[in-house]
Specification:
Blueprint: E1 13-19, H1 23-28, H2 32-40, E2 50-54, E3 60-68, H3 70-74, H4 79-84, E4 90-96, H5 100-113, E5 129-131, H6 139-157, H7 165-178, E6 182-187, H8 190-193, H9 197-203, E7 211-217, E8 223-228, E9 230-234, H10 243-246, H11 254-268, E10 274-284, E11 296-298, E12 304-306, H12 314-326, E13 332-337, H13 341-347, E14 352-356, H14 359-369, E15 376-378, E16 396-397, H15 406-415, E17 423-427, E18 431-432, E19 442-443, H16 448-459
Parallel strand pairs: 1-3, 1-4, 4-5, 8-10, 8-13, 9-10, 12-16, 13-17, 14-15
Antiparallel strand pairs: 2-3, 6-7, 7-10, 11-12, 14-17, 18-19
Helix pairs in contact: 5-6, 6-11, 9-12, 11-16, 14-16
Length: about 450
């Protein structure tokens, strides 16, 4: 989807942004017809509430958009986007007492609100309003964020029938080609030749070959490595999921989609980093060659893993990819995955939980999350739980029994494959369960904008 702001030189209609507590004073300064119109229509300047204001000739002269109360704004992300997305087609500009942060959020929310997943629809999308970039906003950065988010959403929303490992590879290679990156793909039995045995074990049951995709971009600056889980569909394997548990499993490549979106932002903004992206892509299917419960796999790192649940496959493919990532020096390694239901029970669908042993990285990320409109929450690498992932018969257990601290034990499992102390792991959901401002129901990126915003502090850029 191509995004653009309205031409700054073109005529446009104003959108008056007014807070609830300032509405009475603002209204008192309006002409009587405007006061009567807003009174008759019950406008109270609630967050996202919008009214079109007519001109004497019956055309639309302007709009008024409520920014609500401070409490309402604190309880809602992209609150203004609800009203901005309801504006009729045409060119508009914002007026009112907006802080730079509020203006950025309004513009980003408007951009994200233009998203629609239309691949399988026969009806066309009606024209949408265009917004002029407010003074002081970094339009290139906001566009890069929004366009990357739309890539992530499109990938997650596409059903597995049309987005298996091969199609994810095509999107990955297209991303690299767009920015002149170097890309390499290892497929099928060559994974065994290249010592990536757990990626092969998870994906070998499917006729759609498993693979490891790698992208490199940039020739200066700190080294940043991104690793994303690319399970294009997850049946659960021989520990098969119930049918209800499979309904959202097209989104199990949400980690891959999100790191691809983050990589697009970094490359589009030409950040001074040396970027490496690794995506293991598989379909966790069922056949005679599927891995079995209690199989013991030997990982790239040499650690053995007892498979106590074939539905805990994402950490297996990530483990090999992380071991490969860790073989090169990096200033930052980030893994992202739709890994555990336990994370969603802990923090719900809106927060992106993350793990790191580096307090500086955590502080930088948490400080960046607010300005990026991308909330995150730190969970602990809790060392006393390490024995839970040690089954005795092998070095590691991929699915400890008992059900306690499932997100933490999965994160501890992954940490065993990374020696680099500057490592962060995200256990994201990748899905909005119901329509929200700037976030329609369906696939969504989480954590990527916060990471992008934190990179200067994390890396000293």
């Amino acid at each position: 989807m191509s995004l653009a702001f309205a031409d700054p030189a073109a005529a446009s209609r104003p959108v008056h942004v007014v807070a609830s507590d300032a509405f009475a004073a603002w209204l008192a300064a309006r002409p009587e017809p405007v006061r009567m119109w807003l009174s008759e229509t019950g406008f109270e300047a609630g967050l996202g509430e919008v009214r079109l204001l007519p001109a004497p000739d019956g055309t639309i002269a302007a709009a008024v958009l409520g920014s609500g109360t401070a409490r309402a704004r604190a309880r809602s992300r992209f609150g203004l986007a609800r009203g901005l997305s309801a504006l009729p087609a045409g060119d508009w500009h914002l007026e009112g007492d907006l802080s730079p942060e509020a203006a950025d959020e309004a513009v980003l929310g408007w951009l994200l609100s233009t998203y629609a997943f239309t691949r399988y629809r026969s009806s066309s999308t009606p024209p949408k309003a265009r917004l002029k970039l407010p003074e002081g906003c970094d339009g290139a950065r906001l566009l890069a964020m929004a366009e990357a988010e739309m890539l992530t959403r499109d990938l997650i929303n596409t059903p597995a029938s049309d987005l298996g490992p091969q199609e994810l590879e095509a999107a990955f290679l297209a991303l690299g080609d767009r920015f002149g990156a170097e890309s390499v793909v290892i497929r099928g039995d060559r994974l065994l030749e290249r010592n990536l045995p757990m990626i092969h074990a998870v994906g070998r049951a499917s006729p759609r070959e498993p693979r490891l995709m790698e992208l490199r971009w940039g020739e200066r600056g700190p080294r940043v490595t991104l690793v994303g889980k690319g399970v294009c569909f997850d049946t659960g394997g021989l520990d098969i999921k119930p049918s209800a548990g499979m309904l959202l499993m097209k989104k199990d490549m949400g980690g891959a989609a999100t790191v691809m979106g983050l990589a697009q932002m970094i490359m589009a903004l030409d950040l001074p980093v040396r970027l490496r992206v690794l995506v293991p892509a598989v379909e966790n299917a069922i056949s005679g060659t599927a891995m079995r419960p209690r199989d013991i796999l030997t990982s790239r790192k040499g650690l053995t893993v007892e498979v106590n649940n074939t539905d805990a496959e994402g950490r297996l493919i990530l483990a090999d990819a992380l071991a490969l990532a860790d073989e090169e020096e990096a200033d930052l390694i980030v893994s992202m995955a739709t890994l555990t239901g336990a994370a969603r029970v802990a923090v719900g669908p809106d927060l992106a939980p993350f793990y790191t042993d580096d307090d500086g990285l955590a502080a930088a990320l948490q400080a960046a999350a607010g300005p990026a409109c991308d909330p995150v929450w730190r969970l602990p690498f809790w060392d006393p739980y390490e024995p839970l992932i040690e089954p005795g018969i092998a070095d590691l257990d991929n699915a400890p029994s008992g059900g306690f601290a499932g997100s933490i034990t999965a994160a501890l499992f992954l940490r065993r494959f990374v020696e680099n102390p500057r490592y962060m792991h995200f256990d994201i959901y990748g899905h909005t369960p119901s329509d929200a401002p700037a976030r329609p129901k369906g696939g969504v990126g989480q954590g990527a904008r916060a990471i992008l915003t934190a990179l200067p502090q994390m890396l000293g850029l």
